[in-house]
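User: Some background: our group keeps a shared notebook of sequences we're curious about, and every so often someone picks one and asks for a predicted structure to add to the entry. Today it's my turn. The entry only has the sequence so far, pasted here. Could you supply the structure so I can complete it?
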Amino acid sequence: VSLTYRMPSSLVNDVFQSASISLVGRNLALLAVSDDNTNKWDPSELAETYGENGQLPGTRSYGLNIKLTF
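Assistant: Of course. Here's the predicted structure to add to the notebook entry:
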């Protein structure tokens, strides 16, 4: 999920051509994660973590992006 707000040109026109700020989130619906799961891993992905072919389970993450165009 990504929510982006583009700053009005009247606010940033003196310094930048454009500017935007975004809030991003990945794997926000980890519904099966219990409170005692300290690593916040999705248990449905644990079955694939064997040998060299496995990956680490998905985790919930949040971020902030700032885009400035000169």
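Suggested note for the entry: The radius of gyration is 19 Å. Residues 45 and 57 are 5 Å apart (CA to CA).
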